[in-house]
Specification:
The protein has 997 residues and is mainly α. It is built from 51 helices and no strands.
Length: 997
Amino acid sequence: MASKLLKIAPLEAQNQVELSLRQAFELLEPQLRPPFPLTIPTPEEYSQLNRAILYGVLCEPHFAKTQIKYLHAIVTDGYCFFVNLLTTIVDELYSKLVKSARIQLISLVSVMICVSAVGIDGLLVSLLRQIVGGDFSDGNLWLCFELVSLFLSKWDWLVEEEPQVLRNGLYTYLRVLSDHCRFPGDSKLEALRRIEIEFCIKVLREQFHLCLRIGRDLIRLLQDLVHVPEFQAVWKDLVLNPGEFRTQGFEDISQLYRQRTSSRYFLLRITPEMESQLRFLLTHVKLGSQKRHQAWFFRKFLDGSERETLIIDIVRFICCGHHPSNDIIQSDVIPRWAVIGWLLKSCRKSYVEANVKLALFYDWLFFNERIDNIMNVEPAMLLMVNSIPKYVAMTHTLLEFLLLLVDNFDSERKDIIVKGVTSSFGMLARKGVVGSIHVLTSCDALSPPLKEWLGRFLKAGVSKEPQQVHLPCTSVPSVNRPSSTTLETQTVIAGELTESKCAPNDGVGTKAFDSSVPISVEPVTSYSSLVVNCESVEDAIENLVHRFVETARRSNTIDIQILEKIMLSFANLDGHKVTGAFALSPQSLSSKIAKELELNGHKLFSPLESIPNISNCDDVVHSATALIIRTFIFSQHERLLEMLLSWSRHGFPVGKCLLSYVLRLAYEAHMAGNVMLPDNSMKANDLGMPFLFLHMDEYFSFLNGGRKDSPEADLTTAKVDHQLVANLVDGAFSAYRCFLMYSRNSLDKAADVTPARLLFSDLGSCSKWEKQILKFSFCSIFYYLSDLSTGEEDIIKLLVTLLDQADIVLMQFEIGLKKFSIFGENTETIFYLIKNSLNWGLLEQHKVWGLIRSELAVSKVQVEKLILEIFCSGILDPNSASIAVEGLLMLCSCRMPTPELVGAIMLLPNTAFQDFSAAVLATWAVSNSSVLFDSLANFLEKLGNEKGDLFTSTGIRINHSVISWLLSYFNTQGMKDNDILSKLSVSILDMKSMLQL
C-alpha cells in the first residue's frame, strides 16, 4: 500500500516510525472525530493518541484543526511527547515527506510555538539542520523561506522564551545567504534574499548580545557577506563604532576573536543523515579502504554545481565537532586529516577552496590554550606534515595560505593572530602531535622562500616560552597524564557537599535554617583538583548526551555512569567559559533524559510505596532516579534544580521521590547510629543499610573527582564517621527544602500552594511504609523541617491517622524530651488546630490530645491564654468536645497552678462543662495545695483592687463552680482553715456576693 506520508521507492523497506504512526491512526481513527470521548487516557493510550493525531494532521489536512483541538484537550505533559515525535520525523524522515506533509509540519510547529510546548527549541533546531547549503531546489528554498518567516512572525516569543533559537537561526541564515547572494540576478531567490537579510540584520542590530555568544565564527560568516550593502554597514560599525550595537561590555571586534564557537553551530550546517555518514567514515572505515565510501558520500551529498560549498561546513564540523577517542586515534581507521585532504582535492572552484582552507585554519588564528581545544588545530598540522613528500604541493599550499592569513586577515590586530598561530605551533609540538616544528622548516621539498618566511615568523613569534596554565584549585595533586600521542585528556568532574548551616539549638530539638534557602549557582567544585579538558564543557556535555542516547537506542539499556557524568558536567558548566550558544537548557536536557528512559522501559521518579527488602533493593538504590537525586543533594546546584523543577512541572512526582529518598537515608543513618559494630567484613546489605552506604560511597566519589577507587569509599560500619553521616542527612533535608521552596515559585502564583502543603502532598506517598519507619519519618520531618511542619493541621492529622497508639506514645516520650515540636508556641495556631480537630474522628482526637498534653506540659506556651480562648469562643459542644475538654483537664492537672493559670480557671465562663474549673482546682488542691492557695490569694488580691472595673465595666464573672467548690472545700476543713481564709484578700462573704452577681 502506498504511503500517504512518505515518498518510498518500490523496493524500499517500510519505515518503522511511519508504521507506528499509521497503525496508531488506523486503530484510533474513530476517536479522532467529534464527539470526542471524555475519559482520561492511560499513559499507553495517551502515547497512541499522540501518534494517531500526528499522523492524521500530516496526512489529512482537512481534518487538522479538529484533531489539533483534540490534542489540546488531552495534553498532560506540556506537549513533550508530541514534540518529540515531530523532532523524530524531522530528523529521520524529512527528506522523504510528501509535499503536503511538509506544509502541515510547518503549521504544527507554529501551533507548538503558540502553546510554548516543551522541547520546541530542539524541534526548531532540527528543522534548521534540514536546510542544505548549496541546494537551490524548490523544496529547500521553500523551507528556508518558511522558517525565516516563522522566526520573524514569532520574534517576540523567540526573544523572551528561546533566544538560543535566534542565535542558531542567525548562524544558519548567514551561512546560506552567502550562497543565495552569489546569484543576484535570479528572480526566484530575490524574495528569499530580502527576508533572510531582514532577519539577520534584525538579530544583529536588536539582539547583538545574543550574537556575541556565537563567537569567532560569526566574523567568518560576515566576511562572506561584506559585498552585500546591508552588511557593509554592520561591518563598519563592528570595526569602527562598536558602541552602535548598544551591548554592554562589547568594545572591540577582538572580543569575538577570542571567543571559541561551540561545535553545536557546526552541526547546524550538516543534516543528521550527513552527520551519521561522516561519523561512520571517521570511526569504522579503515585507511586504504575509504575510496568507495568517499565516492558514495560525494555522489550522495556533494554532486551538484553548487553543492561543493558544503565542504566548508563539513571541514569545520570535522575539525571542531568530531573528536575521535583514543582507541580510534591509535587504530588504523582513516584519520581526520586524510578526509580533509580528500575534501580539499574535491574543490573545483577557487573561492570554495580558499574558504575551506580558512575553515581549516580558522581556530589557529586566535588559539588560546585556556579555552581552545588542541583537537581543533590538529588536523591541519597533520595534513601538512603527512603530505610530505608524496603530496608536498598540499603542504606548500596550506603553509603559504596560513602565513598569508597572518599578514592579511586583520592587519590592525595582527598581534592577536601572531600569538594565536604561534600558540598553535607550540602546543602541537609540546603535546607530541609532531615531534618538532623543524619537520617543516627543514623540509627540502618545500621552496626555500617559504621555509625562510616560516623561519622568520617562528623566530619572531615562538621565542617566548609558553606559560603554564594555573587552575583555580586549592591544591593540585599529581595526575597521571595520558600518552601525548593520544591528544585526549579525560575531564574529571567533582563536587563538594553543600552542608546546611544550622543555628544554635533553641531548646527544642529542631533544625533552624535560613529562610532564604540559598541555591548554588557556583560550579560544582571539590576538595580535590579539577582536571580541565581542552574540550569545552558544553561540548563534552553534548557528546555525553549523544552517547547516552545512542547507547540507549542501540542496546535498550541505560548507562548510569554516562548519566552521572551528564548531570555533574551540566552542574559544572558555570565553572568554564561558555563559548557558544549552548543548546541544552535544563528543560531540554531533562526532556531528553526522560524520553530515553521511558523508551527503554525505565520509569523515572517512581515513588517508593514501601521500603524494599534487602534482597530486592538494588533496582531502587542503583536506579536512574536515585542517581539524579543523589547528584542534586551533593551539589544543590541551580541547573540541576531547574531540571528537577522541569520534570515536576510535567507531571513527574519529583517531590515524593526526593522525600522518599531523604527519609530512607535518614532512617538508615539512625540505624547506623544504634547498630553494634560487627565484623568488618559485613556488607551494607547485610546490615540493612544499602541506601546509606551507597550514598556515602557516591559522596566520596563525588569529592574525589568521580573516582570510585578512593580509600574513603571502602566503607564498613567500623569506619562510619557518625558526624559525617549527620552532615549528609542534614544536606539531604536541606536539598529537599530547597526543592520545595523553589517549587512554590515555579507554580501558578494564583494557586494557594505553600511549601507546607507540598510537603503534606509528598508525605502521602509514604503512607504504606512500615509503622516503625513511618513513625521515624514523621519525627524526622518535625526535626529537620520544623519550619514547614510545625503546627500544620494537614500533616498532624495525617500523623494521627497513620500511626497507631503505640507509636503515638513513643512520640510523646520524644516530645517530652524536647527532641522536636509538633505544635509550636503560637497560641493562635494551636487554638485553630484544636478547633478544627473537634471534627475529626474520636480515635484521631484521642491521639492528638495525647501529643498536645505531652508538648504543652514542657513548652513555654501560655496555657491560660489558650484555655480562656477555647472556653470563651463557644466551640465546646457537649456532644463533640468531650475529648478536647478531657485533654485540657489532664493538661491543667500536670501544670503548676501559677497565678495566671489559676486566674484563667477562675474566670472561665459558666457555659458547657461548667464544672471544669472546680475539677481543675480540686486536682491542684491535692497535688499542689500550698502553691494553689498562694496563687489564689494573688489572684483575689488583684481582683479586689480592680473589683469595680472587673464587675461593672467588662462584665467579667467568677466561675460559679469555682466559688461553690471553694466554699465547700473550706467548710469541710472546719475552723482550722480560718487561718488560711484570714490570709486571703477577700472573705467568705465577699465570695458569696461574687457568686450572687
